[in-house]
Amino acid sequence: MIHEDIAGVSFTHLSGLGLDPSDLPDQFSFADTIKNTLSDGVVSKAIVSCTSTELEMSVAKSDYLSAVLTELHFGKVRIAEQCLSLSALIEAGAHPAWILVTAYYACYFISNDIAKGSGTFIMNFSEDEFRGILADEPPSIRNAMIVDKSTPFYVVASHGDMSGEVNLLFRKHGGKPHQLAWNSFHRLLNKISVNDSRIKYLELMKQIAKGSDGWCNPSDIRNTWNYIKSNYYGDKGRDLAKNFTSIIRSRGSAHAWAGSVTLKPTEQNIPASVAYLYHSLCRAHDVLVSRLKI
Question: How far is CA 104 from CA 89, 271, 278, in A?
Fold first, then answer.
């Protein structure tokens, strides 16, 4: 199943960095997440370079991996609550628009967490948070990059030049966070190589994440249903969400929907793609956190 391959990208990356059982914290503290450890000076870091668009630094491998596992722990808690809320909406017979938007946000946060494990992900920094990262640096570095309000960065984690180090590259980006997150997830999917029946499911997920071949990017679906088309909260939405409503209840139904030889990006199948993403990503996330023993 393709969810095993998705989780495998992240697990392989973390293992390649040298993941060790000792990297798993005895207790989880939100102060030890990636952003907080960097901006609050909790871990030591060496700034390699800083320009108007990029910041590069190195940190200790154990500090970084511990921060990633902490991120995934708190993400797991949030995702579990989102899934419970989704189930409650389904059982209560809520309007499909509410169910779809709730499923979307679960997909969004799951994809973000899986991407963090893969070493290529999106992270937002406020002006104060970014200032904290560079607080101990000389003015030539502190003033090289301007960050206003909440700025998204494309982050790449890789082996450092020295043993026991991880290199972090932060590339400033002007795009919208949700679109950037799905672009990042699409890059993760491109790392997967399969040559059997999983190809169909992988290619479909790529098309959905990218919004290609007639499919819509998940963020665009969310914007349409949650903001643009208020009439989707009436009978129009119930009609368009028939396929979504049919498969959101069951992983097996979602898998069968995705495997149909006649599947096309119709008006009713485009919202249903969120249900397919939801079940696939939930399974991938379950596999990842289980393998990491979080």
Answer: 14, 10, 7
